[in-house]
Amino acid sequence: MSGRGGKATLIAVAVVLAWLVIGGVSGPYAGRLSEVATNDNAAFLPTDAEATRAQDLAGEFVDRQTIPALVVYERPAGITDADRQRVSADAARFAQIPGVVTPLPPPIPSDDGQALQVVVPVDDAEGEEIGAVVEQLRDITGGDRDGLTVDVSGPAGLLADLIKVFSAIDGPLLLVTLVVVLVILLIVYRSPVLWIFPLLAAGMSYALASVFVYLLADADVVKLNGQAQGILTVLVFGAGTDYALLLIARYREELHRHDRPWGAMKTAWKGAAPAIIASGGTVIVSLLCLLLSSLNSNRALGPVAAIGIAATLLVMLTFLPALLVLGGRWAFWPRRPRADQADPRAEHGIWSRVAGFVARHARPIWLTTAVVLALLTLGLTQLGATTLGQSDLFTQRTDSVDGQEVIARHYPAGTGSPATIFTTEQTARQVAQVATDVPGVADVRPLTAGPQTGPPDPNAAPKVVDGRVQLEATLADPPDSDGAERTIRELRVAVHQVPGADAVVGGFTAINVDTSDAAKRDQNVIIPVVLVVIAVILALLLRALLAPVLLIATVLLSFAATLGLCALLFRHVFDFPGVDSSFPLFAFVFLVALGIDYNIFLMSRVREESVKRGTRAGVLAGLAVTGGVITSAGIVLAATFSALAVLPLVVLVELGTAVAIGVLIDTIIVRSLLVPALAYDIGPKIWWPGRLSRANGEREARGAG
Predict the structure, then answer these.
(1) Closest-CA residue to 627 (of 349, 343, 372)
(2) Distance between CA atoms of 128 and 32, rounded to whole angstroms?
(3) What's the rounded Cα separation, in Å, for the pair 51 and 510?
(4) Is CB count within 10 Å lower at the N or C end of the chain?
């Protein structure tokens, strides 16, 4: 025994040392992910989108593609000569900034005389450095002075503000996530020692995932953006802590039955690993279904998050067990489990009482909880998925938002960010006239051959490239508004009908339109595929068909109830204008994949106990021994996703809130009451058509007789 124990200890030491070496190599990459992140919406469009084709054509009309920063000066009492001199001086300094494409067009005065606008083209090749260029613009303007307000807005200003937000991922988000997990582990374990093991393993998982994501993004295999990076952080720590809680709970049980830690871990690993692997595999496969998306951003999130879960599984099933074996019973101090052969249900008094309550009132419980969840789904009528406008994108005021509002007050709101129309030279005049007649289009002008150094010349010849002309349509509405998107759709219909024009419409608003359309298409394709994949995995794990169908039905009900409740909260409590078009798909993938996790944890243990005790007794035993750990895991995951609220972006706050609420509903209501009550009420038939349904049916019939 001692020989085998000594060998097991040496193996555990070797595993820990090997992982520490891996962590030392991969750790630095966790702080370098922002270096390979891209946050340009256009880069994520499908290649066959009209806005993508327009962007390719635009590259032929300019030496360098640019993204405009709009510097707007406002004085409600009227722009003065001193203001004009200041604007001219600022513009001269703007032209000296590396990355700014010169010559700059002249300042554009508003018709009411209260504002001046300078369009500063920034080289699109600057990438993430566009943020630094915009910061230099803001430093030069110096902010508000003597009643003259100054803001830097436009697409470049918005991108700079987004880059600034996502820069918080490597610091504040990671720190908040770590603190949240630490606090919950201290509460759950009430041990000054045990929390170290899962937190260290989760950190190792994040480091391992980071090195693979960094290398793939650096090689341009995947396009990492700030949103995917933030989700990777909370997903690894949340899911990793979940898997650790499940393994540690089973290990603690086995320490009551084994004299030595390595024997307890061997049995605990065999019991917990299949459920952990099935759970992680379900999440990985569900995330990889995002590869079916037409949006590059979604296709990137799938493998990035899947890599995170795969790394977490590997670490939690190797590094964590080795740490726990080395820690032995001492790791649980001051409540060290003894080898006393105690029934594991004895340590779960509260959940044993919950199991007894389920046994006495099974049918009323599942009917009541199902009705309550169904009522919450009524809130879905308040969910209106849309493309969030620039002023609605952030949870706090930003310079780009303030600037856009100033522009909307004094100019056609689309000034500086026009829609681009590409058409043949022969049909250019007709297309321009048709475009002008579209409601919501304020002005249409051709792109001329020479640089613009003075007021626009209406008689200047248009620039012709390969027989095509570029027209610029200024929209009456802000470029990120619903009104602008309606105008783009109507504009496309109008110009596409011009015979021989072969017209293509692009620009900032068109990118939003195509992104929204692609997101809706993705929902219709990916959601059914995820459901089929999960059903197959559950059927293989539980060796039944009825149980997987019922489990998926409960998770779908939980998902719909969550979205209904969130819709009410977003509209009437948080006062959000709506949800982004990508929200329903992301919420579905994370809530369903993660929600089914807890059902896997529960039902795999129920099946194990049913083999020994019969189905109904197995349901009660499974609920009693897993109730505490699964609820703790749900609270951890909910808390880690709620950490996304530290990033002041409405879309991430909404996603974090939805996952947190959904996980809590799933662990507290669905997994603790609805599923056990339903399984208890149905009895052995829950395993239909598997052999267990017949064996348990005969056993329970004999017991009843």
Answers:
(1) 349
(2) 14
(3) 6
(4) C
Task: State phi, psi for 36 to the nearest 5 degrees.
Answer: -115, 15
Please state whether beta strands 385-386 and 149-153 pair in parallel, antiparallel, or not at all (unpaired): unpaired
Say which residue, 227 or 455, is predicted with more confidence.
227
Q: What is the mean pLDDT of the chain?
A: 85
Residue 263 in this model has a pLDDT that exceeds 60 = yes
How far is 572 from 63, CA to CA, in rounded Å? 49
CA 249 to each of CA 14, 90, 310, 503, 524: distance values in angstroms, whole numbers, following the listed order? 24, 64, 22, 63, 39
Report the candidate in 311, 106, 294, 141 with the shortest Cα–Cα distance to residue 212.
Answer: 311
d(CA 596, CA 696): 25
What lies within 8 Å, CB to CB, of 587 at 6+ separation is 559, 562, 563, 566, 655, 658, 659, 662
Could you tell me the pLDDT band of residue 704, with boundaries at 50, 70 and 90?
very low
- CA 656-662-667 angle, 5° bins: 125
Residue 122, pLDDT above cutoff 80:
yes
SS3 label, residue 170:
helix
Peptide bond into 689 cis (omega under 30): yes
Q: What is the 3-state secondary structure (H, E, C) of 486-513?
A: HHHHHHHHHHHCCCCCCCEEECHHHHHH
- The pLDDT confidence band at residue 342, using thresholds 50, 70 and 90, is low
Q: Which residues make Cβ contacts (< 8 Å) with residue 70, sequence separation at least 6? A: 117, 118, 119, 120, 152, 153, 154, 156, 157, 403, 407, 415, 416, 417
State the pTM of this model.
0.79
Average pLDDT over residues 526-542: 88
DSSP string, 326-348: HHGGGGGTTSPPPSS---GGGG-
- CA 379, 382, 387, 391 dihedral sign is negative
Q: Read off the pLDDT of residues 602-618 as tens digits, 9 standing for 90 and up.
A: 888 899 889 888 899 99
Q: 202: exposed, middle or buried (C-beta count within 10 Å: 0-12, 13-18, 19+)? A: buried
For residue range 636-675, list pLDDT tens digits in order.
888 888 888 777 888 888 888 998 999 899 888 999 999 9
Token pair of 8, please? 């097991």
Angle (CA) 428-434-435 rounded to 5° is 85
Compute the distance between CA of residue 117 and CA of residue 448 in angstroms, rounded to an integer. Answer: 21
pLDDT of residue 295: 80
Q: Are 570 and 655 in contact (CB under 8 A)?
A: no
CA distance 487 to 475: 8
| Structure tokens, 638 | 């909910």
Task: State the pLDDT confidence band at 412, using cuts at 50, 70 and 90.
Answer: confident
Question: Which range (127-131, 193-197, 360-364) has the least confidence?
Answer: 127-131
Beta bridge partners of 464: 469
**DSSP states of 89-155:** HHHHHHTTSTTB-SSPPPPEE-TTSSEEEEEEEEEGGGGGGHHHHHHHHHHHH-S-BTTBEEEEEHH
Predicted confidence at residue 13, as pLDDT, reads 93
DSSP 294: S
* Strand duo 66-74 + 419-424: pairing: unpaired
The predicted-structure confidence for 264-280, as pLDDT tens digits, reads as follows 999 999 988 988 898 88
Instruction: State phi, psi for 109 to the nearest 5 degrees.
Output: -80, 150
